[in-house]
Amino acid sequence: MCLAVPMVVKSRDGFQASCEAKGIGRTVSLILLEHEDIKAGDHVMVHVGYAIQKISEADSDSAWDIFDEMFEADPDA
């Protein structure tokens, strides 16, 4: 199963972005979204270190609500 995690772009330097989710920061490649206008404050779906899709803040919040529900149901997951 593949899983992408919603993250917020904190800053951008070329095709690299500093992103954060739930207080955890990561450097993320933006190369797959090279034709998208990605800037600080945008939300992206991240899979294995690559931003694969730009999403709305509402979609990001909704995804985290679902993840939180799953983790509540099975805290060992």
Provide the number of structural domains.
Answer: 1
CATH topology term: SH3 type barrels
Total strands: the figure is 5
Largest sheet: 5 strands, antiparallel
Radius of gyration: 13 Å
Shape: elongated
| Number of helical elements | 1
CATH architecture: Roll
Which CATH class? Mainly Beta
What structural class do you assign from the helix and strand content?
Answer: alpha+beta
Estimated helix fraction: 10-25%
Mean pLDDT: 93
Instruction: State the end-to-end distance.
Output: 14 Å
Order of helices and strands: EEEEEH
Question: Concise description?
Answer:
The chain has 77 residues and is an alpha+beta fold. It has one helix at 57-73; strands spanning 5-13, 16-21, 24-29, 43-47, 50-55.
Describe this protein's structure.
There is one protein chain. The protein has 77 residues and is α+β, with helices and mostly antiparallel strands. It has one domain: Roll (SH3 type barrels). It is built from one helix and five strands; from the N terminus they run E-E-E-E-E-H. The protein has one helix spanning 57-73; strands at 5-13, 16-21, 24-29, 43-47, 50-55. The longest helix is centred in the C-terminal third of the chain and has 17 residues, at 57-73. The two termini are 14 Å apart.
